[in-house]
Input
Amino acid sequence: YSLANANDFSWRNRVATYQGALQMLADKPWFGFGWNQPERVYNALYCPAKVPEGIAIQLNDYLMLGMTLGLPALVCFGAYVWLSLVRRSATADGELRMSEEDWLKAVCRAGAVVLLVGFWFYGGLFELVTGVTFWVLLELGREAGGMKGGEYKLKVAASS
Output
């Protein structure tokens, strides 16, 4: 109901905060402002007068990552997540086969995507509870470089 309520400024504050964060990214795109600096710099130099508190800057983890470490780190994070979520599902004959392990990976990827969407609005990537859950789901759902469960082979040296 926040969008329809003319007296509720929370979504407007977020938009103003996102504009300030994007300005910060534009000012230092390569290396960012460093750890624990974006909030202090935002409050001192980029916070508009109409925003009562600059705390909303912490609510978007992607902008925070870009402001802290720069756009190259944000691109690397996005590429890693994309490569972890993308799935090569067709077999050599073009038929799709789903085993129990494939279903588990699909569920883990779905959970990671839900958390990714939530990180845009409420943060959590840098919090212990949600951040660890995200990374565990992402890794459990990731395709392992061409090897499936049960195909791990152990080479034993023949001793004479």
Observations:
- Residues 14 and 56 are 6 Å apart (CA to CA).
- The longest helix spans residues 100-122.
- Confidence is low (pLDDT under 50) at residues 149-156.
